[in-house]
Each structure stands twice: as C-alpha cells, then as structure tokens.
C-alpha cells in the first residue's frame, strides 16, 4: 500500500569553511550528531517507529559507506543499516528523494536521509601508477568520458555567463543580496552545534556590490566568477526524517509532492536544473508562478541567474535568506541543506505553502524536489 511521504525534524550542522572550524572532523564526526539529534527529536515528539535505513549523500569521502559508519557512531543500533549515494552536488537531495520514493511505495516507514561532506578530510586520490611514471594525484574524477566536454565547474560558470549574457555586475548584485540576506537571518533553530561551533562560518556582513566588484576573477583573467559571487568549499551535514503522513500526524511537516532528475549539456552543467524542474512541474501539475520559495544551490551567481532567466522565476522567491554564496557549499550535503532551509521558511506561521529545491550537477545533470506545507 502506498503512503504519502513527509519530511520532519530537519537539522543541519553549521557550515564550516574547509580547513578551518571542522578541519579535523571526518564525515562521521559531522553526520553522527545530526542523525542523533533528528532521532531524539522524533522520539521527543512521540513518533515511535523503527528506523528502516539511513541514506546519506556524499561526494569525496573515504568510501566504506559513510552512512552506515555514521549511523553506528550515532548510536542508532547495529540493526539500522545505511547506504551512501553519490550524485555529486545533488547527492544530499537525491538521498532524500530515494527515501521519499521508498516511503511512498509502502516498503519503508521511517528513513533518516540527507548528506555530508568533509572537504577538509577528503582523502588524496591517485590514478593507478603507470610504469616509469610517478603517481598522478587528482582532485576530482571525470564528470564525463573522453570525447565529451568536462569543464571544471568554475570554468563552466564563466562559460555560462558568456553564453547567456550575464554580466559581472549582475552576478555581483545577486551575490550582494545573498550575503546581506544570510547575514540578517537567524538559523539557530535548524543548527546542531558541533564542538564549540554553532554558527555558519562563511557568512560576512557588509559585502556590498562595490566591495565585490574589487575582487579578481577566479577562473581566468576574462572570467566573471569570483570568490565573492561563488560559493566557498565547505564542510557540513544535514539530515531530515522521511516518514509517512500518518506517523507524523500533528508534527510540523513538509509533504513531498514529487521529484525529478534530468540530464543536460555537460559543457554547461549550470543549466541542469532547468529540465529537471520542468519535468517535475509537469508531473505535479504546477507552474513556476505557484512557487512561494525556491532554494537552488548557489554554487555560482551565474548558475542561479541562468536558471531563473530560463524558467522565468521570480528572483525574490529564490533563496530568500541567502544561499551557498554566503553560507558555503558542502557538496554532498548541499541538497539536503536546501530542504532544511525550505522547512525553516515554510513551517513558519506565515510561511509559503509550496517550495522547490534544485541542484545543478557536474557533468550536466539536474535534480529537483517539490514540497508543500502540511496544514
């Protein structure tokens, strides 16, 4: 029998700048306290059900199934399994999507899902040695095979800005908005402190367009992406409980209306959310005008602006409390962080009724999830 999946108990760590506050913490160290807090929140609210699985997204971890390792560290019990998902920057959102589909199918009743990334402790990786040559270290695996475009994301963001005519000035204006909104927001209710860190580390007040305009391009002398209008490399984790509407009765919750993934041009991966969002809205019978809030991973200002232009989104509903440009982008966790952010905004007394989360993914993919507030 199918069940309506809902998201409850959204929590996340602070987002740390790579190499700083969480410099010595592994994916296990980051994910375990959030998993524990989510489960304790459920138990405290009276929701009693066995945890069927833990599903976490992760990109650059050590392998060995970080979700299972973190579940054990969190004290969930040896009987609680775990599985790790890799869809690069969309991993955390994909983990929640997979959990929601399993709950909808009736196969499971309660899954803890989200994502985690520790860029600080990601292991060094080397291609297999070639006789007579030194091992070659690589920082990322290919996003596409030989014969396809495979640009780094920063280079691709610059290319996207050129192709779509998105000026440096417009990118800086969007980034200034993100920095200003995040600096003014209070995220404390969604954050699980880790050690002595209880606030996002990257957020800085006072980053105006004028100050951002002084920054040099990061990915080429003629580029427009800078350290100020792009995300920072970050560490963090986010988890939500995915369960049935029946079990969560009476709790603040977001109903999962649908989800979609799509492929797109590997040369311009920033446009990946466009076909995914279109597919999702078509499936659910909604239009962009229905969306009260949209959380898109702000990897680069040019990406968010290109997606907004293509879909005709109202920019005022995009990341209304700032996003990854201001807060940071812990790759495997970022998609789940979007859902935590949606929950914080939508579950307010006057919060919007319908929200969407979407990520652009290296290699030309997009993922999107549509949620509504449960009355």
Automatic annotation (TrEMBL):
It comes from the Bacteria. Residues 256-373 form the Thiolase C-terminal domain. It is an enzyme of class 2 (transferase). Residues 6-245 form the Thiolase N-terminal domain. Its EC number is 2.3.1.9. Pfam families: Thiolase_C (PF02803), Thiolase_N (PF00108). Keywords: Acyltransferase, Transferase. One of its GO terms (molecular function) is acetyl-CoA C-acetyltransferase activity. NCBIfam families: AcCoA-C-Actrans. Belongs to the thiolase-like superfamily. Thiolase family. PANTHER family: ACETYL-COA ACETYLTRANSFERASE, CYTOSOLIC, ACETYL-COA C-ACYLTRANSFERASE. This is Probable acetyl-CoA acetyltransferase. It comes from Rhodococcus koreensis.
């Amino acid at each position: 029998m199918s069940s309506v999946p809902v998201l409850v108990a959204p929590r996340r760590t602070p987002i740390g700048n790579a190499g700083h506050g969480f410099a010595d913490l592994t994916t296990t160290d980051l994910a375990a306290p959030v998993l524990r807090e989510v489960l304790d929140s459920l138990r405290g609210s009276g929701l009693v059900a066995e945890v069927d699985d833990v599903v976490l997204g992760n990109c650059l971890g050590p392998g060995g199934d970080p979700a299972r390792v973190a579940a054990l560290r969190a004290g969930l019990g040896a009987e609680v399994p775990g599985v790790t998902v890799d869809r690069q920057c969309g991993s955390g959102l994909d983990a929640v999507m997979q959990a929601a589909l399993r709950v909808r199918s009736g196969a499971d009743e309660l899954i803890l899902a989200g994502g985690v990334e520790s860029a600080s402790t990601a292991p060094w990786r080397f291609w297999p040695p070639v006789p007579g040559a030194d091992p070659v270290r690589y920082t990322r695996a290919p996003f596409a095979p030989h014969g396809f475009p495979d640009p780094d994301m920063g280079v691709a963001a610059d290319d996207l800005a050129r192709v779509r005519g998105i000026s440096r000035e417009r990118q800086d204006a969007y980034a200034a908005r993100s920095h200003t909104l995040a600096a003014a927001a209070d995220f404390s209710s969604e954050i699980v402190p880790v050690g002595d860190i209880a606030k996002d580390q990257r957020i800085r007040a006072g980053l105006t367009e004028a100050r951002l305009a002084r920054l040099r391009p990061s990915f080429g002398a003629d580029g427009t992406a800078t350290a100020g209008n792009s995300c920072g490399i970050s560490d963090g984790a986010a988890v939500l409980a995915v369960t049935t509407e029946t079990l969560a009765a009476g709790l603040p919750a977001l109903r999962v209306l649908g989800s979609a993934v799509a492929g797109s041009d590997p040369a311009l991966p920033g446009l990946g959310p466009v076909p995914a969002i279109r597919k999702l809205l078509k499936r659910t019978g909604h239009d962009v005008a229905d969306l009260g809030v949209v959380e898109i991973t702000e990897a680069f200002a040019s990406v968010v602006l290109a997606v907004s232009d293509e879909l005709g989104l109202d920019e005022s509903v995009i990341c209304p409390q700032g996003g990854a440009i201001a807060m940071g982008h812990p790759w495997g966790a970022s998609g789940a962080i979007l859902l935590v952010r949606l929950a914080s905004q939508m579950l307010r007394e006057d919060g919007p009724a319908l929200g969407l989360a979407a990520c652009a993914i290296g290699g030309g993919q997009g993922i999107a999830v549509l949620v509504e507030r449960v009355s």
